[in-house]
């Protein structure tokens, strides 16, 4: 039987940026905070302002009255256990590195690529892995195969490389070229091809921008920023400004909403992994990070009754339907606002809550809620679905 593929296995930088990646960088045109601003404060302020606005409240409301009950009933030992588990498990790689910079480079690239949550069902069907496991699998595959991950190596990657390393099929079902003619078949594009394009676009564009700025690798950029000013806020700002794939923001009704999920995750992981050994990564403001709002955490926050989507949005989420940019932004923003209320009450001198070994801040809450989302009783809760995004 003859076979013709409609897809190219060698799509590279010379062919131009992948279309799916360009569409998924929805925050590229959003006006960023002033460079004199603290970008972590900008996330808190913009999400609160949006949720307090008419447009935000029409989609999601905050159940502030439930915060005290939730905090007072929080299992401290469970909180400590889950946060410690996430820090020790998800941020340790079973790999050998030549040096710390190589380790840092791969950790940062893994965080840069924390995308694909909207393709969760398709990934499980095709590969029996979720989005996060797919990214970890692919990045470790590139490292083990000694694929260059410097700026030249990132730009040289092709769609075929992404398919092989990440296990993402590019081809779907076959169909006859002409009706009634079964001798020659044409393969349709896989439903996961857009995800492969998003991953490829993130890596190629990051490599190109790093090279244009005179850096040899992503790690070299991060190290320089941390030498200039060893704070999480400064690193997040520089990452967001430099790379469209980290410009996690939206303009809703002319109002900017900043989320900066992946840039904050880079700062958090670098501090957790390297901060004890190297002062420039031991960020004193690490507790000022906000939630790394993705598809899971807002669903868990909703499950706990801390946020309440409007009836139409609630129905779409429950049915597993794909959400619009405005809807996903509202849910993610609301989870950040609700998390700050939880943090404020937990750390209030008037609260009866007493923290355990782990401080309660938005970053640790994120770890707790993310891992809690894997509990059987919560795992069945429908998560947010958004395919057209390079941010989560």
The gist of it:
By secondary structure, the protein is mainly alpha-helical. The chain is built from 19 helices and seven strands. The longest helix has 22 residues.
Blueprint (SSEs and pairs):
Elements: E1 2-5, H1 19-24, H2 39-52, H3 54-59, E2 60-62, H4 67-72, H5 76-89, H6 100-112, H7 120-127, H8 131-144, H9 151-156, H10 159-166, E3 171-178, E4 181-189, H11 193-212, H12 218-228, H13 232-242, E5 249-252, E6 255-258, H14 261-274, H15 297-303, E7 307-309, H16 311-318, H17 325-346, H18 362-372, H19 376-379
Parallel strand pairs: 1-4
Antiparallel strand pairs: 2-7, 3-4, 5-6
Helix pairs in contact: 2-17, 5-18, 6-12, 6-14, 8-10, 10-11, 13-14, 15-17
Radius of gyration in whole Å, from Cα? Answer: 21 Å
Strand/helix succession: EHHHEHHHHHHHEEHHHEEHHEHHHH
Query: pLDDT below 50 for ≥5 consecutive residues: which ranges?
Result: 1-10
Helix fraction, binned, reads: 40-55%
Structural class: mainly alpha
How much strand content do the residues show?
5-15%
**End-to-end CA span:** 41 Å
| Arithmetic mean pLDDT | 93
Number of strands: 7
Overall spatial form: globular
What characterizes the major β-sheet? 3 strands, mixed
In spatial order, strands of the major sheet run 1-4-3
Domain unit count: 1
Characterise this structure:
It is built from 19 helices and 7 strands. Residues 1-10 have low confidence and may be disordered. Helix content is 52%, strand content 9%. A 3-stranded mixed beta sheet has the order 1-4-3, with no helix packed on it. It has a two-stranded antiparallel sheet with strand order 2-7. The chain is mostly helical. The chain has helices spanning 19-24, 39-52, 54-59, 67-72, 76-89, 100-112, 120-127, 131-144, 151-156, 159-166, 193-212, 218-228, 232-242, 261-274, 297-303, 311-318, 325-346, 362-372, 376-379; strands at residues 2-5, 60-62, 171-178, 181-189, 249-252, 255-258, 307-309. It has one domain.
